[in-house]
Amino acid sequence: MTRKTTVEVVQMLPLGMLNAFLIINGSNVILVDTGLPNSEGKVEKSLKKNGLGWSNVRAIVLTHAHIDHVGSAKQIQSLTAAPIIAHTGDLPYLQGGRPLLRPTGPFGQLFEKTGAIEKPFASFLPDLIFSSESLDLTEFGAPARIMHTPGHTPGSISVLIDDVQVIAGDLAASGIFLGGIALKNRPKQPPFEEDPQQVAKSLAALLSLGCTRFYLGHGGPLGADKIRKHVAFLEMALA
Fold it and tell me: Both ends of the chain: CA-CA distance in Å?
């Protein structure tokens, strides 16, 4: 019997304002993103909810190198011994470089002034740094692969599960303010986006592969129809 692969949303902040994800295939888990520093308790709670523990985590995949997605990576690795996987495009940020912040609207401009996204975290060198357009994850126990989808940051990646579901990081968001809270069925740009034109291309590429369910770092999940409308909005705004 073929094992069913599921995606468990790990809410790092209330109401879907910040999400990480467990890709669960039997006793094998791939953790996608790790939240802010000291978020390991939230991950452990989700693992236990599914009858799993730290020893089941086979890999830690980082969609991009902002503190709210990688802040607990080293802490969690010390509990799992799982390799950390990231794209070479975000390596400067993982090693302490200041992220390039380009606000997408008034909230982003206000959020930038708080300095929250620029707070330091324990810098590190990922165990598996890849520079190709894709990376197969089946050796880590789940039918998944990574696809390089730049735009939010140069090294942003998405994780495709069975080429239908996709964890797309911050290529899009939904909800209000940071994301989540309310109106979570309405796509929008996240507070910061380095290259919106490239974001539109990356989302269009995922749609062309047949992805139907998009899990997001802030808000979501969204169906392909909502993402398609968001791509059209980006393309119109950039025309």
Answer: 50
